[in-house]
Write a structure and sequence with these properties.
Blueprint: H1 2-17, H2 21-25, H3 28-38, H4 57-67, H5 71-76, H6 91-99, H7 116-126, H8 137-143, H9 157-168, H10 178-184, H11 190-196, H12 205-212, E1 216-222, H13 225-230, E2 235-241, E3 247-250, H14 252-255, E4 260-264, E5 270-280, E6 285-290, E7 319-324, E8 332-345, E9 348-355, E10 366-370, E11 375-382, E12 390-394, H15 396-400, H16 410-427
Antiparallel strand pairs: 1-2, 1-4, 2-3, 3-6, 4-5, 5-6, 7-8, 7-10, 8-9, 9-12, 10-11, 11-12
Helix pairs in contact: 3-9, 4-6, 4-7, 4-9, 7-8
Length: 428
């Protein structure tokens, strides 16, 4: 009996080991292809979706026309853009993209490989952001949260599928989404959309990261002009953008004592901290205005921003995600649950939220997101001897603050706070 059982186990193990590797190691590109196929946007090839193969410009044009729900219009348009050697199967899609200004006349190369900059430019134009391409459309797409990871060089078909799937639910400039258009035109079914979870309100940790990482900033603060000149930061911290024009929330203690500072975006671009529009030392919150021109001289028309929910509806047991710049090593996400919503602490004059979503030094000023991807609090500190007791100041005071004024420089804030302390001591 034992021998028979052992033989059966071995046979089972052998069977499992002989399963196709792709079945066990299917990547995001192939999964995105299957999702698009279920919506009728991708048909695949005779050998599957070939997610690892290089994508072509014609494939990008054909997919973009489908994303726009414009295949019928493309076939009906008999104008000829004049490009030679366009594959017959892609002729209508390429011509449509040309005449709709989705492909610039100088960009298309028949049978050419698909470069990240070109594809991101096509997506941005399709969504109404064509005037904001900048010098690198792929960097722009990452900066505004259209794509969730840096893309460069030649793209694979898998890259094409992943970014196309994300673009379906990205807000268009004039409102709505590409997915809304497809549903309105009945080019895909609500059942297929819901089966994929594309309209789910609640986010997984991966989805929260994809949608919000580009709105979180890594701060460097300098406590003297000499430190600025030498590039020796006195502190690292975090912040998160709350408006597309560059307003960001952080902790007051993150900027305390600084005369200058910079904010590094997910793209690697570095922007100066221009002004402080609101600060409250007791609550430990501040709102900054980030320069809209990077140190490289790149103009930044818009930033990606995180919606504010505040802490009013936060409940014990709610799932939360913390994103910040722990130890100054770059952006990181942790997840947990809220363990207290009104914890009295010396860190803030306002009761704090306590969660077990891990934060570390440098995470001060980062964002605590609810499961909808909205900011409820600012990650602030922790008990040295507590177990998973991480403190977050509710973002509500920043939501209620007057942010239309000119504000102050970091150095002016430092001087004003020092003067206030001196005055308070004199009164005592």
């Amino acid at each position: 009996m034992k021998k028979k059982l052992l033989s059966l186990v071995c046979a089972l193990a052998l069977t499992v080991s002989l399963l196709p590797a792709a079945q066990a190691l299917e990547g995001d590109g192939a999964r995105a292809a299957r999702a698009l196929a279920s919506l009728g946007l991708v048909s695949g090839t005779g050998s599957g979706y070939d997610a690892d193969a290089d994508a072509t410009q014609e494939q990008a044009a054909a997919l973009l026309v489908r994303l726009l729900g414009a295949e019928k219009a493309a076939r009906a348009d008999k104008r000829n853009c004049g490009w030679k050697d366009v594959p017959r199967w892609a002729w209508s899609a390429v011509n449509y993209c040309a005449y709709q200004n989705l492909i610039d006349w100088s960009e298309y190369l028949p049978n050419g490989a698909l470069e990240a900059k070109l594809w991101c430019a096509m997506l941005l134009r399709a969504l109404g952001y064509g005037e904001e391409l900048g010098s690198d459309a792929a960097r722009t797409a990452l900066r505004i949260g259209l794509i969730s990871r840096p893309l460069d060089g030649t793209l694979t078909r898998g890259d094409l599928f992943e970014t196309a799937l994300a673009a379906l639910t990205y807000p268009k400039r004039d409102g709505g989404t590409l997915l809304d258009t497809l549903l309105t035109k009945r080019l895909c079914t609500a059942a297929a959309v819901d089966a994929l979870g594309l309209r789910d309100e609640y986010l997984t940790a991966r989805e929260a990261a994809d949608r919000t990482l580009s709105a979180v900033l890594c701060l460097k603060l300098y406590n003297s002009e000499k430190a600025v000149e030498k590039g020796n930061a006195s502190a690292n911290a975090s912040a998160f953008l709350i408006r597309s024009d560059g307003l960001a929330v952080t902790n007051y203690h993150s900027i305390d004592g600084a005369v200058a500072g910079t904010a590094t975006l997910a793209t690697g671009e570095v922007c100066a901290i221009e002004r402080v529009l609101y600060y409250d030392e007791g609550i430990d919150l501040a709102v900054l205005r980030i320069a809209r021109t990077s140190e490289e001289g790149e103009n930044i028309p818009r930033f990606h921003a995180i919606p504010l929910a505040g802490a009013r509806e936060a409940r014990v047991g709610d799932a939360v995600y913390a994103i910040g710049n722990p130890l100054g090593l770059g952006l990181a996400l942790s997840e947990g649950v809220i363990s207290s919503t009104a914890h009295e602490t010396d860190l803030s004059a306002r009761p704090c939220i306590v969660s077990d979503a891990t934060i570390s030094r440098g995470s001060s000023g980062g964002v605590l997101l609810n499961a909808l991807g909205h900011a409820v609090a600012v990650t602030t500190g922790a008990y040295a001897y507590g177990n998973n007791m991480y403190l977050c100041v509710p973002v509500d005071p920043a939501m209620e603050a007057e942010l239309s004024g000119e504000g102050m420089t970091l150095e002016e804030v430092r001087e004003a706070v020092a003067a206030a302390h001196e005055a308070a001591e004199a009164e005592e």
